Amino acid sequence: ALPQMAMIVNEQRQAVAVGRVLREIVGRDLSWLLGLRPGEMVGCLHSHEGEDGCGTAPACQVCGAVEAIEAALIMQQPAVREGRLRRALPGGDQWLDVRVTAHPFTWNGMLLALVILEDISQLKRLEVLGRVFFHDVLNTVGCVAGYVRCLGELSEAERPAALATLAQLTADLTEEIEAHRDLLAAESGRLTIDLHRIELRPLLRDLRAQYSRHGAAVQRNIALVMSNCPADPLDCAVRTDARLLRRVLGNMLKNALEAVPPGATVTLECECTAERVRLCVGNPGAMPPKVRQQVFERSFSTKAERGRGIGTYSMKLLGERYLGGKVSFTSNEAEGTKLVLSRTAQALIGRRRAPRVFADCSMELARGAAARDDRASNDPARNEAAQDERAAMAVGRKQE
Known about the structure:
Shape: elongated
CATH architecture of the largest domain: 2-Layer Sandwich
Strand order of the largest sheet: 2-1-5-4-3
Order of helices and strands: EEHHHHEEEHHEHEEHEEHHEEH
CATH superfamily of the largest domain: Histidine kinase-like ATPase, C-terminal domain
CATH class of the largest domain: Alpha Beta
């Protein structure tokens, strides 16, 4: 028995033998596993999307396991590929980075392949950590040190601009470290959230101002669009964790800014309706088909060595598991690319009423409430009830 996750597959990529380690990880006996393909065996989320199972869904076109096995069987020589598996588990989706090695051989006239799956998730996480701290952080620290050295040589007129840049650099550095810390906590289930009523218009204006000064925004513009939202900012709010919401939208903005050429405009949009809150970041241009299939996968990046492959992945993780929303995207040549964080408004609240919290809803749309008629009633019982209601409202406002 091999001390690794191993199986032997035929030319249809169906298992004809399964190693003990893999059987124990999957938690099934051999009779149940025989005849299954690798994705079906380990519970890949895409394994049932295609008409013929594992290997036939659109996402399978960029699957490292499929590529390694097919290359080995067709070329009849060993093949090694890296891939990402998304498993649907009761506690939430699990992402695995794997290295797949396929060794073809012939037995009794049948062409078979020995397939070995190696979990390299921790290795990929260490690589990301290395890129963050040995590239992004060190570069920023170097810039900060350069500005500090120059401060004494600047004139009084030049110093305010340098100090402003220095402040932005230190803020970016703090954000980079905190973002990675929160991602590690989120993946392990240790991230805590702090829910408050947040007005969207001021938050989005702050984000636009912040990322307009980002390095990726040089010679690029950010346009803020409020669609179908009340003019009064008090009437357009969500109940959410402001820090994580800024993190998700900030990653969307950085991705969009990095994807467009100089002179282009990225849109930051809020759409409020009676049914849904949609926060969108859009940019001109469409993603290639292979990129669209891997947008939210951990460790996938379009930026080769510069990329870390956690930006869109963290949007999905934080936006859905912790903010209770739905993170999606659209991308085509006619309308460009748009990343969306949306949440069904299950509780409509007015700015003069304490928000009602629903257990299954972490984002709530605050709509304008009708003006309350505070005229005194001649009915003593109604007067007493009104006084109790106003007292409850005052307590709710203090808690906010």
